[in-house]
C-alpha cells in the first residue's frame, strides 16, 4: 500500500479531486448537489497499527510499500512519527519505543503495536508478541502504563493479558449533545472521530422528519457495529431495531445504549442476510422471536455495509422501505447497489465524508426516498 503523504497546503486540492471523482462516477443517477464534509488534513486517525522492525540493537515502527508491478516485493518504511495518526499517538510513539529499547522484557520478540485513542487523549496500546508472556512482562508493562498514562494489553498466541481494561471511552459532540461510546480493542470503530461527528449529525438531519411528521414509525439498522448510528438516531424514531453479527460489537452496543440512556432501541445479533430472511418470515428461532418483529412499523432502514456492499437480495429487501440511509466506504459497490435501489427510490441527499485525507478512500452518505407512483 502507499503510505499517505500529508501536505496540508494541498488539502483543498485533494478534496476537490475526490469531489470531482464522485460527481463523475454517480452522474448517471442524477443526484442532488454533493455535500462535502472536510476532515482535519492531518492527525485525524484515532487508531493505528504498526509492525515493529528489529535491526540489531534497534527497533522501530514500520509499514510496507508494495511494488505494484511485483506485489511480492515489499519495501520497509521506517516511521518515527505518522502525520495521519492522532496527536496522542504521535506523542506516544517515541515514548513507547524508548521504553522498549530500555527493556529486554518489553522488546523481546515484539511483533506489532496497535494504538487506540480518543479525542480527549485516552489511550489503549496493544503489544503483540511472538512468545509467551509471563509475570516479568506483566510487571514491566504495568510500570509502563503508569509512566505513560496509558492502558496496555499484551497478546501472543492463545494469550490476551488485559492489565487495566480492554476499551476506551470516546465522547463525540453531535448537535449540542455529548454521546458516549465504549470502543473495544480489536473491534471496528470509526477511525476518524472528527468526521464521525459530522456523519452522525448528517444522518440525524436527513432523518429528522421522522420526529416531526411521523414520530410513530421505526428505524431498522443493518451492520450497526457498536451502536454508532443507533445512539445518535434513536430520538428521531419511535423505536430502533439494529442488527450486527459480531458478538463483541453487540455487547459493546448494549453497553453504549445504557451509557447514553437510550431506551427505545434493541440490538439483535444476526447477519444482514439472516435478518432479511427473518423479515420475510423465512427464518425462525429464538433470536428471531426475541426481536418481536410484529411490533415494529419500519419506515426507514440504515445500512453501513463492509466494502463489498450489499448483495442483490439485501438490496431488494431494503427497497421495501420508504426511506433508505446508505453509508458506504466503497463508491464502486455503492454505484452497483444504486443501480438496483434507484429502480424504486430517488436520491434525495448525497454526501462525501473525507474520512482519510490524502488517500483514494471516499466515504459516502446517500438518502433515498421511494418514488411516488401516480
Distance between the termini: 51 Å
Radius of gyration from the alpha-carbon trace, in angstroms: 22 Å
Query: Number of helical runs?
Result: 12
Assign a percent range to the helix content.
25-40%
**Major β-sheet profile:** 8 strands, mixed
- Strand elements, count: 17
User: Based on CA inertia axes, which overall geometry fits?
Assistant: globular
What topology, given as strand order, has the largest sheet?
Answer: 1-16-17-15-14-11-12-13
Structure, described:
- By secondary structure, this protein is α/β, with parallel strands linked by helices.
- Helices cover 32% and strands 31% of the residues.
- It is built from twelve helices and 17 strands.
- The model has no long low-confidence stretch (mean pLDDT 92).
Q: How would you summarize this macromolecular structure in one to three sentences?
A:
With 374 residues, this protein is of the alpha/beta class. It is built from twelve helices and 17 strands.
Amino acid at each position: 500500500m502507499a503510505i499517505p503523504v500529508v501536505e496540508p497546503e494541498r488539502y483543498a486540492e485533494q478534496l476537490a479531486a475526490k469531489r470531482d471523482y464522485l460527481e463523475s462516477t454517480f452522474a448517471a443517477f442524477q443526484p442532488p448537489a454533493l455535500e462535502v464534509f472536510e476532515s482535519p488534513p492531518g492527525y485525524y486517525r484515532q487508531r493505528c497499527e504498526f509492525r515493529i522492525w528489529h535491526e540489531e540493537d534497534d527497533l522501530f515502527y514500520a509499514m510496507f510499500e508494495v511494488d505494484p508491478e511485483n506485489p511480492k516485493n515489499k519495501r520497509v518504511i521506517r516511521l518515527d512519527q505518522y502525520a495521519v495518526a492522532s496527536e496522542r499517538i504521535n506523542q506516544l510513539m517515541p515514548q513507547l519505543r524508548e521504553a522498549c529499547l530500555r527493556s529486554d522484557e518489553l522488546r523481546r520478540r515484539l511483533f506489532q503495536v496497535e494504538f487506540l485513542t480518543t479525542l480527549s487523549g485516552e489511550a489503549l496500546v496493544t503489544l503483540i508478541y511472538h512468545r509467551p508472556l509471563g509475570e516479568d512482562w506483566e510487571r514491566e508493562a504495568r510500570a509502563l502504563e503508569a509512566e505513560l498514562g496509558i492502558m496496555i494489553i499484551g497478546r501472543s498466541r492463545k494469550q490476551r493479558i488485559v492489565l487495566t481494561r480492554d476499551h476506551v471511552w470516546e465522547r463525540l459532540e453531535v448537535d449540542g449533545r455529548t454521546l458516549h461510546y465504549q470502543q473495544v480493542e480489536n473491534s471496528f470503530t470509526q477511525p476518524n472521530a472528527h468526521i464521525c461527528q459530522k456523519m452522525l449529525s448528517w444522518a440525524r438531519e436527513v432523518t429528522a422528519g421522522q420526529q416531526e411528521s411521523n414520530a410513530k414509525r421505526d428505524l431498522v439498522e443493518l451492520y450497526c457495529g457498536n451502536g454508532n448510528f443507533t445512539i445518535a438516531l434513536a430520538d428521531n424514531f419511535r423505536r430502533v431495531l439494529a442488527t450486527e453479527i459480531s458478538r463483541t460489537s453487540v455487547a459493546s452496543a448494549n453497553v453504549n445504549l445504557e451509557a447514553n440512556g437510550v431506551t427505545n432501541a434493541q440490538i439483535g445479533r444476526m447477519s444482514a442476510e439472516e435478518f432479511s430472511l427473518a423479515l420475510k418470515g423465512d427464518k425462525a428461532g429464538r433470536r428471531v422471536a426475541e426481536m418481536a418483529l410484529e411490533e415494529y412499523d419500519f419506515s426507514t432502514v440504515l445500512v453501513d455495509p463492509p466494502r463489498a456492499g450489499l448483495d442483490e437480495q439485501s438490496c431488494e429487501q431494503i427497497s421495501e422501505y420508504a426511506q433508505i440511509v446508505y453509508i458506504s466506504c466503497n463508491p464502486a459497490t455503492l454505484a452497483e447497489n444504486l443501480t438496483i435501489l434507484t429502480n424504486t427510490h430517488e436520491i434525495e441527499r448525497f454526501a462525501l465524508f473525507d474520512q482519510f485525507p490524502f488517500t483514494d478512500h471516499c466515504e459516502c452518505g446517500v438518502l433515498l426516498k421511494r418514488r411516488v407512483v401516480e
